Every structure is written in C-alpha cells, then in structure tokens.
Amino acid sequence: MATTPLDGNRERDADPGTEPDQGRIDDLPDFSDMTTHNWHAHDDTMSGVGFLTIARRLPALIGQAVRMAWEASPRDTVATIVLNLLAGVFTAFGLLATTGVLEALFASGPTPDRVRAALPGLLVVGAAAVLRTLLQAGAGWAQARLEPQVTRIAEERLYGLTSKVELIRFDDPDFHDALQRARNRGVNSSDSVVGSAIDVLTAGISLLAAGGVLGVLHPILLPLLVVAVLPDAWAAVRSARMRYGTMLSLLPTYRRKWIISELLADRDTAAEVRSFTMRGFLLRVYDLVARTEQDVMVTLARRQATARLVGEALGGLGAALVYLALGLLLATGSVPLAVAGTAVLAVRSGQSSLSRLLFAVNQLYENGLYFTDFVDFCESNEQEPTGERGRPPAGFDRLTVDEVTFTYPGKDTPALNGVSIHIDRGEVIALVGENGSGKTTLSKILAGLYAPDGGRVLWDGTDLAEVEPHLLRGNIAVIAQDHTRWPLTARHNITMGLEKGEDTVVRAAGVAGADEVIAELPHGYRTLLDRRFKDGQELSGGQWQRIAVARGFYRDAPLLICDEPTAALDARAEHALFERIQRHSDGRTVLLITHRLASVRHADRIYVLDHGLVVEQGTHDELLDREGIYADLYNLQARAYSR
Predict the structure, then answer these.
(1) Torsion over CA: 31, 32, 33, 34 (sign)
(2) Taking burial as the number of CB atoms within 10 A of a residue's CB, which of 58, 288, 416, 555 is the most buried?
(3) 583-615 residue pLDDT tens
(4) DSSP letter, residue 169
(5) Contact, 169 vs 107, CB < 8 A?
(6) Could you tell me the pTM of the whole model?
(7) Residue 124's domain spans which residues?
(8) How far is residue 218's CA from residue 554's CA, in Å, rounded to a whole number?
(9) Torsional class of 587: left (φ above 0), alpha (ψ -120 to 50), beta (otherwise)
C-alpha cells in the first residue's frame, strides 16, 4: 500500500497545546503478515468461485443447516419449512386465480357486470394473498425463534469442547488457528447458515411457484421467465464477486486498521499511549489506512453500480423480449389477454424471487465456509470414548515421577527428559532452576494438566494415566504465578465455584493474607473485582496474588502446588506468606517452585532442574556443600543482598 509523508501534520503538532511531534510517517508500519483475526479468512476462496461451484455445494450446506436447526428445535424447524412451502402454494394459487379475475374484467359487457363477475375471483385472490402473508409471517416467527436457539447450542458445543480438551492443545499453533476460526466467525455463522438456508428454500419455492404458473398457462412462457431473469442473475453474481475480490485485496488494510484501533482503544495500551504521547502518531497512521480503505470502497461502489446498470439494461431488453413474445402470442391468438396479464405478474414475481434466491445463495455459501470451520473443529476435537477411567485415591503416601519425558508441540527439544522424583506425604518439596529448566512443565504434569509423553506418575501404586483427569484435579490445589484475574466478586475469586461455607472462605483468606485486602474493599467479599463494571474495584498485582493464594488454600487439597506464589509481593509480604505456607502445610504436601532460593531453605528436599533434567537433589545444606548449580545460584542471590 502506498504511503506519503504527512508534513502538514508536523506543523499541526508543533502548535502550542498539542502533543509533541512524533516525526514524519515515511513508512507505514507493516502489519500485513500478522494474523489477528479470521473475519475474512475465506474471502480468497469466495473471490475465485463461480455460481455453479456454489450451487454444487448447496445441498451439503443445506443439509448441515437443517440438522443443526433440528437439534435446536424440531418444532420450529418443521414450522418454518412447512409454512414456507404452504406460502409458496398459495402464491401459485393466487397467480392462477388472477387469470380468472382478468378474464372476467376483459370480457365484453357493461363495466358493473364485469366487476361483479370478477368479484368472486377477486375474493379468492385476496384470500390467497392474506393466507400467504399469514403463512410467511408464521414462518418468519418460527425462523426468528429458531436462530437464537441455533446460536446457543453452537456456542455450548464449542465452549464445552474448549473447556474440556487437553491443555497441551493450546500450545499447538494449528489448534490455536482452528480454534480462532471456529470461535471468531464460525460459531457466529451458525444462525446465519440456518437463516440463509431457509431463505434459499423460501426464494426457491417462490421461483418454482412462478415458473409452475407460467408452465400451466402456456409451455413457451416458462423459457420467457429465464430470458427475463438471466440479466439480473448475471448482475448479482458479478457484483458479489467484485465485492469478494475487493475484500481480499483489503485484508492487509483491515489488519492494520484493526491493530491500530486496538492500540487506540484498549485498556492495556491506554497508559503507554499517553505516557509516550503516541496519540498523534497513531491517529495519523489510522487516518492513512482508513483513507486507503475508503478510496477502494468508493471504487467498488462505482464498479458495482456499473454492473447493476448493465444488468438492468439487459434486464430491460429481456423484459422487452418477453412483452414482444407475449404480444405475438396475443396477436396469433395463442393466449388470451387474461393469461398474458397473469404471465406478466408471474414474470415479475419470478424476477423478485430470483433476486432473493441469488442473494441467499451467496450468503449461504460464504457463511457456510466459516460454519464448516466450526463443524470441522468440533468434529476433530470430540474425542471418542476411550473406556471408563478410575477414580483417583483420596490421598497418597508417596507421589512418584518415574522417567517422565515431555515435549511441547512444534518443539524439537524436550522440556523434560527422563525426570524422576518422589514426594512423600507431608513433605515440602522445592523445584528450582533457571528459566526454561522444566519446573513449571513438571508441576503441570503433577497437577494432571499435561499428560507425559513417556514415563509414569504414580499416586502410591495408581498410575495417573488410568485416572479420570477431572476427578484427579479435585485432589490438587494450584497457586500459579500467571493466575487469572476473574471479573467476579472477591468471594468467587476465592471459591472458584466450589462451595465449602463462609467460614472456610474467611479462613483461607486469613491464611493467605487476603483478609487485609478484602477488608479495604467497599463491599467486602461481595465487591466485584473489575473496574470495567459499575462499582467494580481494581487491585494491585500483590493484592491479586494474595487472592490467588487464598483460592489455593481454600481448596484444601492433599497436594498444594505453589508456582512462584510470591512473584508480585514485597519482601515483608513474601516472608509472611512463606511462614503461612509452612504452617498451612502441616500434614499436607507442598510442591514449591520459586527463583528466590532463600525461601526454600527449610524444604525437606530440593530438586534442581537444568534443561529438562534433574541434575541435583538434596536439602539446602547438602546442595550448598556440593557446590553445584544450586550453590552458584544461591550464592549469587546472597551476594546481591549483601552489597
């Protein structure tokens, strides 16, 4: 995309009271290769297909839509289809009845007599029109009821899967891309696919009704309908392909525009936009991108208008041929005047129905591509039953990690390579090592979040591979460094949906030191911890960490895993927390992961990991005497504090 320096903006930014100048934009930041969303992921597919390709895929798409509609509501599905069919029948019936009305009106005799003769036919036509309108209204009501139900079951199906699949799948780029396609537009296309499929059926029924009427009136009239509607069909398809091609060419522009708009309006970037006075620079970039999009869309509007003009001109020529043919049929006495009048109405009805049909077909095909992303994602992640897994033991005397290996998707180097450790009930065990040594990966395997590629994890004699993971996690509490700041009340941020009574909540908060944080909140445990909502409150990083520690203590599980639980705490709060953990661990088992080695001095055993291997183990004093990696790291930290 071409860019130009905006020298005028330099002068504007130099005025008093404006933000500091950010310099000229000689080169627009290139975001074209960044995949930030998938709203236009299939525009390249749409831009290269013709109407016949779309038509061949219609039966499969309609079948998928009907199956999902039936799952959502069989009653509304049947009502929508049947009522639309009946509306088409009454459309045809009304057109045929019009012939009798016109014959009566065109007959010889006084006008009052002709009107009286036409009155019964007029009543029939009016009744058919009223019934058709009522049936269409009923079908619309059923369809309006159906679409939100389809959206609900599609969302439930998707999020039921995303919350159930193995955690390791989220580290797979291919899974992530498939999920984003299914989530961003795929699930949102479910109701559109159903609606478009119904619109295709409705418009098709109306078109068949008009064609059937013409076939009944005179065999040659049906080809006349084709002559009349083909130009409109060409113009609609041409206009649609222009739009899809333009959307494809604008994909890099959309990405740039979306990224810049997020930078300007997102809460996470708001502080730095102001601190670094980025507003002027970002607005200039946004304006340049938006103007590019505007120019392309204006050009598209001109091209589409030209296509429509040509289509309407050809359509007018087709209509002239229809009327010429009708005139010849009238002149030769092949059809009476009343039949010719009905044929004109049927042709006009057919043109309108075809226009709706083409629009619905294009919408169905486009939405069907995204809907297929959703269906494929769900089908590929709905695991087949692998047999009943057992319940985990209520506790353990020894937890054993035996020669465990694990490699992340897309990585060549294993994160864990033959790791073996053991943890006895009631012990405080520490995992230490530099970043990337495998500490957190091992803790996630112990927590049942990852399944090892090789080796075993045993609770006494029970292999966790034979245990239902969801039930296992009920016996484990995790205090994570990267804990989630849930937009819930303080109480629900601790209980996490597990109800053990108010006394347990208060006790867990007290052990974690979170009671001091909650005491300062305006509504105590009922305070919503998210400032984006009314009366919501924001906490500091250290305050949030205390809440996260409280939720781990609240679970009161046989195994407590603490992964950098003091990363956001000051020195005094860190010391107090480790003292609380030691008191709380009485009779329980604690796995502690931390970089602050002074905090693990009193651990029963320390395992030192390096590049996925356990390279040292022992007590604090034993490891210092060994003068290995642990001693180096500990002395390095100690010297930093002694200077």
Answers:
(1) positive
(2) 416
(3) 666 667 889 888 878 778 888 899 999 999 999
(4) G
(5) no
(6) 0.70
(7) 59-381
(8) 82
(9) left
